[in-house]
């Protein structure tokens, strides 16, 4: 699988100048084919997305996107790292052609972008001190303990789940990346760090810290699925992406790409954008 490349902000801004807006929505794919690459937003949160020391982009979401864009005649993907909360504004401002980052489908996001059908599904997890001294197994447990501080990505699902469970804003600490989250936990600046299960497992495997442990899944937290996200006006590109995604799922290639990262093809194929974007009952 060809690797895509990570772009610094400076070189990305230079690309912005060249990425001319298409005449019409249907020309977006033609524009990308001529451009030779699709600019994707990622978070660098393995195994969803990752940027190697050599700048090569991997992770389940970019690998699926690269495979599909190749079939659509777009040779490369070029990634830029973004905080989850900045991905949709960046897409809408034309800084990205798609978000392929594990950005979970939720009604409020479905109102803002055109999601593909589901790609990567995962439950939520906590990384915390060995022995779970504060007995935290749900976001409500954190809310109910006035001393408990949670770290979560800015604009991310775990931040929102904590706030919705009643954790006051001053006890929800925005964490820029996985390594920082583990360090903050080790330094006692937070009592729990929350990300999806596979992301926490990846970080814990790398941290190899016997003083930390994982709670997974978080009690009463939903299983989420992402999709590739496109601008609302690029729904023709989204539909073309979905045609190839469906073929990838049916051929077995989809499972071959995502399951080595720990994701379940069956989980993504057993749900739909319609179900995941439906307003909560
Ligand atoms: O979609 C989100 O907001 C979440 N998705 C991932 C893959 N990691 C954390 C983030 O909060």
Automatic annotation (TrEMBL):
Keywords, alphabetical: Signal
Main subcellular location? periplasm
The signal sequence is 1-25
User: Which part of the chain is the Solute-binding protein family 3/N-terminal domain?
Assistant: 37-265
The cellular location(s) given in this protein's UniProt record come to: Periplasm
Q: Which InterPro entries does the record associate with it?
A: Ectoine_EhuB, Solute-binding_3/MltF_N
Please report a single Pfam family linked to this protein. Answer: SBP_bac_3
Concerning SUPFAM superfamilies, the annotation shows: Periplasmic binding protein-like II
Among NCBIfam families, the record links this protein to: ectoine_ehuB
Name of the protein: Ectoine/hydroxyectoine ABC transporter substrate-binding protein EhuB
Q: Which gene encodes it?
A: ehuB
